[in-house]
Design a protein that fits this description.
There is one protein chain. This protein has one domain: Aldolase class I (TIM Barrel, Alpha-Beta Barrel), CATH 3.20.20.70. The protein contains 16 helices and 12 strands. 45% of the residues lie in helices and 12% in strands. The strands form 3 sheets. The chain has an 8-stranded parallel beta sheet. A two-stranded antiparallel ribbon has the order 1-12. The two termini are 35 Å apart. Bound molecules: ligand FNR. The site of ligand FNR has 22 residues, from helix 3. Ligand FNR binds next to helix 3. This is Oxidoreductase. Belongs to the FMN-dependent alpha-hydroxy acid dehydrogenase family. InterPro entries: Aldolase_TIM (IPR013785), Alpha-hydoxy_acid_DH_FMN (IPR012133), FMN-dep_DH (IPR000262), FMN_HAD (IPR037396), FMN_hydac_DH_AS (IPR008259), LMO_FMN (IPR037350).
Length: 389
């Protein structure tokens, strides 16, 4: 982290990707096809929840401490018994081939280089096996869009387990894709062309069932195969909490529920024996008009923080945002859109620069705030200066 800072400060050696979080999206817009840009930058409805996600961060301010030696700082965290070098994880983001040809394999490779755990989406354009190979010895988790067909679910879990994915992240908020006005061709057309379904198409159980029904391989009937896959994964029917038992039966590692916003749902996760939750509203891409994600974090930590691991996402743009979320009780955060903007601008190296930039910002800002390690990020560092939005 320090290296990046020194190179810029003293030698004016700046990264290809802008380090100004406000300009990053603009730079990415210039680098992408409008459909791809709309897919990543777009949100549900009038984007009120996207706005609320950012506003929630502005309502908390850090109160720095002085006269503390902070030269040596430690960003490591422990999650589910494993030590990670970084408090940020790469969020699961689907269809990465539409942003850059480096796609999931490239991004997971650079995440491994900088010690950022990579969370692979079910809706990926590279398969579970390809990403495991590219990620090598890097830490990786698997995100499940939970199919209706239990055989397919079990097959995905088996493949993830066999390929070294340590934690299962089950996304609950996207059993149907929301209406995203800017995005009606950005995501859906690539999905329908099969680009977003390569991981699904690679699944032996899905293939077998498809063959039986259509007497063809998925690649020969891409439209039908896409419809089958989307129909199963984004079926329009939500699973119930009782069905978590099936996941527990077929996954012997930690299970984390993603998309939790209500403290009562966080309690349900505890009751059903889950190991963690991600407090997230999918970056404002699902229910528009929903509360800013950070708004709910303190209440949720209060309700279940001592019973399971609380992770946070939706709206993280800077290192200071990371420190705020950790100080409100999250044990780690997912970074989503910023890394994808980096990927679009400069391929895997661009994404790497964005993630390194955020880590460098966490490191530097912790030092300036008088914090030396992640445990030092706690409520005593924060004041709320505005009433709830
Ligand atoms: C997502 N997200 C997401 N989540 C998930 O569980 N599986 C997925 O496949 C995807 N795909 C996806 C695509 C794109 C383009 C975006 C922007 C987001 C949600 C993601 O994991 C995370 O919750 C959000 O990105 C957090 O919001 P911000 O901080 O990126 O605005």
């Amino acid at each position: 982290q320090n290296e990046l800072y020194r190179a810029g400060m003293f030698h004016h050696c700046l990264p290809v990707v802008t380090t100004d979080p406000r300009k990053l999206e603009e730079q990415a817009k210039g680098a992408m096809k409008p459909t791809a840009y709309n897919y990543v930058a777009g949100g549900a409805g009038e984007r009120a929840t996207m706005d609320a996600n950012r506003l929630a961060f502005r309502q908390w301010k850090l109160v720095p401490r002085m006269l503390r030696p902070t030269t040596h700082r430690d960003l490591t965290i422990k999650l589910f018994g494993e030590t990670y070098e970084s408090p940020i994880l790469m969020a699961p983001i689907g269809v990465q081939t539409i942003f850059h040809k480096d796609k999931e394999t490239g991004l997971s490779e650079v995440c491994s280089e900088i010690g950022v755990p990579y969370v692979l989406s079910t809706a990926s354009s590279s398969s579970i096996e390809e990403v495991a190979k590219a990620n090598g010895k890097g830490p990786r988790w698997y995100q499940l869009y939970w199919p209706q067909d239990d055989d397919v679910t079990i097959s995905l879990l088996k493949r993830a387990k066999a390929n070294g994915y340590k934690v299962l992240v089950v996304t609950l908020d996207t059993w149907a894709l929301a209406w995203r006005p800017a995005d009606l061709d950005g995501a859906y057309i690539p999905f329908m062309k099969g680009v977003g379904n390569r991981n699904g198409f690679a699944d032996p159980v899905f293939r077998e069932k498809f063959r039986k029904k259509f007497n063809a391989e998925p690649e020969e009937r891409v439209t039908e195969a896409s419809e089958e896959w989307i129909g199963d994964v984004f079926s329009g029917a939500a699973h119930s909490s009782d069905e978590i038992a099936l996941l527990k039966k077929h996954w012997d590692g930690p299970i984390v529920l993603k998309g939790i916003q209500h403290p009562e749902d966080a309690k349900l996760a505890v009751e059903h024996g889950c190991d963690g939750i991600v407090v997230s509203n999918h970056g404002g891409r699902q229910l528009d008009g929903a509360v800013g994600s950070l708004e709910m974090l303190p209440e949720i930590v209060e309700a279940v923080g001592d019973k399971l691991t609380v992770i946070f996402d939706s709206g993280i743009r800077t290192g200071v945002d990371v420190i705020k979320a950790l100080s409100l009780g999250a044990k780690a955060v997912f970074v989503g859109r910023p890394a994808i903007y980096g990927l679009a601008i400069g391929g895997k190296q661009g994404a790497k620069q964005v993630l390194q930039g955020i880590l460098a910002d966490v490191d530097q800002s912790m030092g300036l705030a008088g914090i030396v390690n992640i445990a030092g990020c706690n409520r005593s560092m924060l004041r709320r200066y505005a009433k709830r939005a």
